[in-house]
Every structure is written in structure tokens, then in C-alpha cells.
Design a protein that fits this description.
Number of strands: 12
Oligomer: single chain
Strand content: 15-25%
CATH topology of the largest domain: D-Maltodextrin-Binding Protein, domain 2
Shape: globular
Number of domains: 2
Radius of gyration: 22 Å
Structural class: alpha/beta
CATH architecture of the largest domain: 3-Layer(aba) Sandwich
CATH class of the largest domain: Alpha Beta
Largest sheet: 5 strands, mixed
CATH superfamily of the largest domain: Periplasmic binding protein-like II
Length: 325
């Protein structure tokens, strides 16, 4: 009888502890791009309902909003361009990189089917999203390594977002743009449908920045561009961080295997996107989730190149080991 009472008491205590440990709210944040899309599946599938009473998604539309969220503690887990994560960590922000999942997402779009490489765009006007951030940084590094001057040899028109660059292209205000998926696939969908099909010349996929990166730097055609990071006090909650990472991996797998369902789900949270365009984009994004510590070699190769030409992009130095969760 005494043993039964002890066991029951222990169970009650255990349930009480678990109830107390359940968070009131968990905030997951990211951009419109593919790196965020597994977060939405995590919310829709209730993957973290046992961790928090409420799990919500917070969209950041540009790098300034991303930085504001990290500095003000506006999220627990956030999707970040890899250089921004390093930059913030080097500036003393409480942020650790959990993983890299996006290794290729950028490409040139053009109305001129004959343009195949970045060098072919020399002298052309190009719509470019996010000045001094990932698309611009990679473009500059590649063309500089090819012996060109990114400022003098190209006419860059900077946009506030990939959506703005895509719109400029669709409305024929520019003929070339550097875009990230799913903006590329959405642009192709829009210009191939009525009424734009009647008034807008065809668009074509052109230079793949990942392939050009591989050629000029004699490495694999992939770049550790974006992944998930953990912020603030959440860094110390190892069990929750581990659960998040596990569920993100599962949701990324589901996303890759169910493009049409994924597209329909994503637009409920990011209505500016197009469901069919998101579905189209998934085969074109190099998605492969690698834990931060296992991606360190690739990241440090990437960071070292940035450090030589533009150290400010990573906060002046390679991040220390504690950056990698």
C-alpha cells in the first residue's frame, strides 16, 4: 500500500513539473523564403504543442526587421542568413546557430534567353533585393572573383525585398533581376498566365549563383546560406532546443515530399506568395539540413571569403565555437 502511494505521488509530481515547464508561448520567426516554410508546418501539425500552450509564426520582411527582432527579443527561434547570424553573435547578441538548411536559393531571371552566366549581364541593369545582404554579397563576391567590378561593370538597382524585385521584372520596368526562390517560380507562373501572358515577354531562368560560386572558388556548387538560430534565454533550454531541431528536420522532410500541400499551407501564413509557385520552387532549392557544428567547415570557408573583401558582413571576424549550437 505504501509503495502504491509513493508511486502515485511521484506521478502527480512529475505531471506537475511538466505542466509548469510548458511555455505560455513560443515564437518562431522567418522571412518569406523557403527556410521559414517548415516552421509553418510545425505550427499546423502541432509539433510543439506539448512544449508551449501557443506557438506562433512572426514574419520578418527585410534584414532590418530581422535585426530588430533579435535585438528586442521578439522570437525564440529565427531563420537567418548565415552571415547575419555570425554578425549578430560577434556583436554580443545572444544568438546561436542551430543548423543550415538552405544551400542554394539564388538565381538570375531575364527576358533575354541568350544570357547564361553572370558575366553575360555585364553592363546590364539588374534589380537586386537587400542591399549589402545575402543576394548582394554573393553576387559581388562571385563577379569580383571573375575579375569584374560589381559597382562599375553592372547597373544595380536595389530593391527593398525579393517581392519588389520580382514585381519590377513582371511589370517590365527591368529586364533582369537576381531573385531567391520562391520568387523565381512565382514570377514564371505570373508571366505565363492571363493577362500578363499577353503583355509581358517570357522570363527565363539564367545564371545559378551556387554553380558559379563552385566554379570560381573551386568547391562544391553549394553555399551555406540560411538556417535556424536560437535566441536569448531559450539558448539555455536544451530540451526544448533539441525538440525544435528534431521537429524542424521532420517538417523540412514533409515539405520536400509534399510540394502542393506545402504551397497551400504556406500561403495561409504568407498570403503574398502563390501556392503553385511555392510548389514549383521546391525542386529548385538546395535543401539539406545539417547541424551547425557539422556545417562549421563549410561556414568558415564562406565566412573567410567574406572576411577578406567585406569583413563587416560577418562582424569583422569568424565567430567563435560557441556560436555553433
Amino acid at each position: 500500500m505504501f509503495k502504491k502511494i509513493v508511486i502515485i505521488s511521484m506521478l502527480i509530481f512529475s505531471v506537475g513539473v511538466n505542466a509548469q515547464e510548458k511555455l505560455e508561448k513560443l515564437v518562431l520567426s522567418g522571412p518569406v523564403a523557403s527556410v521559414s516554410h517548415p516552421l509553418i508546418h510545425m505550427i499546423e501539425s502541432g509539433a510543439l504543442n506539448d512544449v508551449a500552450k501557443k506557438v506562433e509564426f512572426r514574419l520578418w520582411k527585410n534584414p532590418d526587421e530581422l535585426r530588430a527582432i533579435t535585438l528586442k527579443g521578439g522570437a525564440d527561434f529565427i531563420a537567418v542568413p548565415s552571415n547575419v547570424g555570425a554578425n549578430l553573435h560577434n556583436k554580443g547578441v545572444k544568438i546561436k546557430l542551430l543548423n543550415i538548411s538552405v544551400w542554394g536559393i539564388l538565381g538570375m531571371m531575364t527576358r533575354d534567353e541568350s544570357l547564361k552566366t553572370l558575366a553575360d549581364f555585364k553592363g546590364k541593369e539588374i534589380a537586386m533585393p537587400f542591399r549589402a545582404d545575402m543576394p548582394d554579397i554573393l553576387f559581388e563576391e562571385i563577379v569580383r572573383a571573375q575579375g569584374m567590378d560589381p559597382k562599375k561593370d553592372f547597373k544595380i538597382q536595389y530593391m527593398n525585398s525579393p517581392a519588389d524585385a520580382m514585381q519590377m521584372l513582371i511589370m517590365r520596368r527591368v529586364d533582369h533581376a537576381l531573385l531567391a526562390e520562391p520568387a523565381i517560380s512565382i514570377a514564371l507562373r505570373k508571366t505565363n498566365s492571363f493577362p500578363l501572358k499577353l503583355i509581358a515577354p517570357d522570363l527565363y531562368r539564367s545564371a545559378n549563383l551556387q554553380k558559379e560560386w563552385g566554379k570560381v572558388f573551386k568547391t562544391e556548387p553549394k553555399i551555406p546560406q540560411a538556417g535556424m538560430a536560437v535566441l536569448g534565454d531559450m539558448i539555455t533550454k536544451d530540451k526544448i532546443v533539441k525538440r525544435f531541431n528534431e521537429e524542424y528536420k521532420k517538417s523540412l522532410k514533409w515539405y520536400m515530399e509534399n510540394p502542393q500541400k506545402a504551397g497551400e499551407m504556406i500561403v495561409k501564413y504568407i498570403p503574398m506568395l502563390d501556392a503553385d509557385g511555392v510548389a514549383d520552387s521546391i525542386p529548385y532549392v538546395q535543401l539539406d539540413i545539417v547541424d551547425a557544428k557539422n556545417a562549421k567547415k563549410d561556414l568558415e570557408f564562406f565566412y573567410s571569403i567574406l572576411k577578406k573583401s567585406n569583413p563587416k558582413t560577418i562582424g569583422g571576424k569568424l565567430p567563435v565555437d560557441s556560436f555553433y549550437y
